[in-house]
Amino acid sequence: MAKKKDSEKHEDGQRGGKYNKDDADANELENFVDDITDEELLGDVLQKRPKVSDGVDTVIIVDGVPQVNPERFDKLKVVITKIFAQFGKILNDYYPKSENGHTKGYIFIEYEKHESALEAVTQANNYKLDKQHTFLINLFSDYKKYNDIPEKWEAPTLQPFPERPNLQYFLSEPDAFDQYYVYNVNSHIEVWLNSNPQPTKLVEREKWTESLIMWSPLGTYLATLHKQGVVLWGGPNFTNVLKLSHRNVQFVDFSPCEQYLVAYAPLDNGEQKLTIFDIRTGAEKRSFISDAPMAGNVLRWSKDDKYFARIGHNTLSVYETPSFGLLDKKSITVNGIRDFSWSPRDNVLAYWVAEDKDVPARVVLLEIPSRKEIRANNLFNVADCKIHWQKAGDYLCVKVDRYAKIKREKGDVKYSGMYFNFEIFHMREKNIPVDSVEIKEPIHAFAWEPIGSKFAIIHGEPSNNSVSFYNVKSGQAPVLLKKLDKHFCSHLFWSPAGQYIVIAEIRDSGALEFVDTADFTTMCSTEHYKATDIEWDPTGRFVATGVSSWKTKGDTGYWIWSFQGRILNRFNTNTYCHMQWRPRPPTLLSAKQQKDTKKSLKKYTSQFETKDKMRMTKASKEVIDKRRKLIKEFEEYRSKRLEDWNKQKAERMAIRSHIDTDELDSDDKNVQVEKVEFLVKEEVTVID
User: Fold this and answer.
1) Per-residue model confidence (pLDDT) at position 27
2) What is the per-residue pLDDT across 564-587, written as a single tens digit (0 to 9) for each?
3) For a Cys staple, 225 with which of 212, 542, 584, 606, CB 3.0–4.6 Å?
4) Which of 524, 520, 602 is nearest to 563 (CA)?
5) Whole-prediction pTM value?
6) Helix, strand, coil proportions of the chain in percent (round to 5)?
């Protein structure tokens, strides 16, 4: 029988729970001190042990619930369940009742997870069920905390005021240079100043965002999106100004005056959650659940942030701020509503309603908050409509796609004999008259002049497009100013200052035509091959064109042009994805002050030109100094190499049988001279 090893004996002794006092390690075991805590040894097990709050922190108390009789109880329970089920799975609910069966006005709801209970408290607290009932919600675990409030009040500790950076610093740039960001692959972000003659890099950061990056509409903030929520950056060094928690956010939208931010995040059931935040305080104001596809602008804001609206099933819901409640406590019933848009100047909504059998389509102008229809226009044989407001809000254009025949097959609708109308609403005239422009050819693009009353359209067959310019005047029908035939183009890009326009073909040839609409002269015809993006700077002085690596391969990068079409800078890089100019807020000058400034511009032209020359001279001096430095470095390197070459001459001679081949004439025996003659010039002189 084989004997056990000592190690096996030791293990057997431990399994039996006995220690052998004769072992050599016995003395050490007697002096052993266990300094390992239970959390370190069994941390994963202890985390699962029951807590005092288990079963309590998933329960919420909802006060302000209607008190109903037994006949209406089932209906109340359906409404309550629909509201609170959106925050998570409900395990139990309890409705306390009086002796006669009436509910007491408060309920208990138990969720599966503590996070769901927290979200219900955050999102549904102060929720208005109707005019008489507003929910007040607390965690059940907070009941004891609120019940044990001390009678003697103690003043809270003063917190230091976190000083914010100057968020409008970019407006005080001495030379009025604009900023823009460049988004590269792997979320490598660069912020540049479009200085002259070369842009200056201000900030460069890796992994600055996890998905999207965008400027706020007035340029105050730079927003980045992350898994946990949204971060707003600002100030000269782009410091963290505000963090907004909103998990899995995919898109954000700012209100026009930057008072509020809307975050969009998808839910597991295919819907999306919309949350409105107050940018000044970071507080969450209201949230919605929408079944619309994951695209922004579900909520659309009025120009002054006082109202926002969204479309429901045959309803138009208008909300007011800062209460974030429905205007007049009810939605507007509009059967067949398809789309709407706010005026950029007034609190007026324009929406259109589709045809329904013998009922014509309608375009309606609705004044808010009075809900008064100030204009309506009936339209027949309508397939689709697109609403285009002029930037000043003086005119509204509704592009109407109309048909001659309609055919319905197995639920599909097919139109034939298509033609197009532009319905122009004169918003500043009495009774808002409407003019119509009919185009028989397909329409590819439409764009209002931002400052002015002109609009441009691209129409015709794809291989033979035309660009037409119309002007709208008060009391007159639109007048055709100019038609440019045989233009291979797909998009129109007006200068923010008006007058100048870029007619472009995107993603194929990249053809660009810079046109001055004052006399419709073509200032420049050029191209940026396979350009995917074109964007004017906010002042209308520069245009940026880009080829994004998101959309194409090869020759990616962005170029910057003058408004006349002169190329200024080329930045070709394989990592380029997107760029965006930093917006500017509207000017505070009146129309008269702006007009006077333009008149006196000639006084300052010489100063501007002198400054530009000095800047160019400085740039030239820097280039010359850099070249001189490179030449000096090259000459030093060359002299060292020549010195090494001379030291190695003995070795070269030994290798080459002591024949010196360093110079062409050093070995005249192995050189053959050949003369070649050729005719350089022939002159013929004729003498009479």
Assistant:
1) 52
2) 999 999 999 999 999 999 999 998
3) 212
4) 524
5) 0.71
6) 20, 35, 45
pLDDT of residue 387: 96
Spacing of C-alpha 639 from chain mean position: 56
Strand partners, 387: 398
Sign of the alpha-carbon torsion through 639, 640, 641, 645: positive
Q: Which uninterrupted H or E stretch holds 229?
A: strand 229-234
CA distance 471 to 483: 12
Among 64, 68, 58, 62, residue whose Cα is nearest residue 89: 58
- In this prediction, residue 37 has a pLDDT band, given cuts at 50, 70 and 90, of low
| pLDDT tens sequence across 209-231 | 998 899 999 999 999 999 989 99
Counting every residue, how long is the chain?
Answer: 688
Helix, strand, or coil here: 315? Answer: strand
CA–CA dist 539, 687 (Å, integer): 68
Three-state secondary structure call for residue 48:
coil
b/e for 213-235, b at 16 or more Cβ within 10 A? Answer: bbbbbbbbbbbbbbeebbbbbbb
Does residue 511 sit in helix, strand or coil? Answer: strand
Within a 10 A sphere around the Cβ of 297, how many other Cβ atoms?
A: 13
pLDDT band at 526 (very low <50, low <70, confident <90, very high): very high
How far is 539 from 100, CA to CA, in rounded Å? 72
Q: Mind listing the pLDDT tens digit for each residue in 633-666?
A: 999 999 999 999 889 988 888 888 777 777 766 6
Confidence of residue 288 (pLDDT cuts 50, 70, 90): confident
Q: Is the pLDDT of residue 304 over 80?
A: yes
Q: Is the dihedral of CA 280, 283, 289, 294 positive or negative?
A: positive
| Three-state helix/strand/coil letters over 431-481 | CCCEEEEEECCCEEEEEECCCCCEEEEEEEECCEEEEEEEECCCCCCCEEE
For 119: left if phi > 0, alpha if psi spans -120 to 50, otherwise beta; the answer is alpha
Structure tokens belonging to residue 145: 């905390």
Burial state string for 166-195 with b = 16 or more CB within 10 A and e = fewer than 16: ebeebeeeeeebbbbbbbbeebebbbbbbe
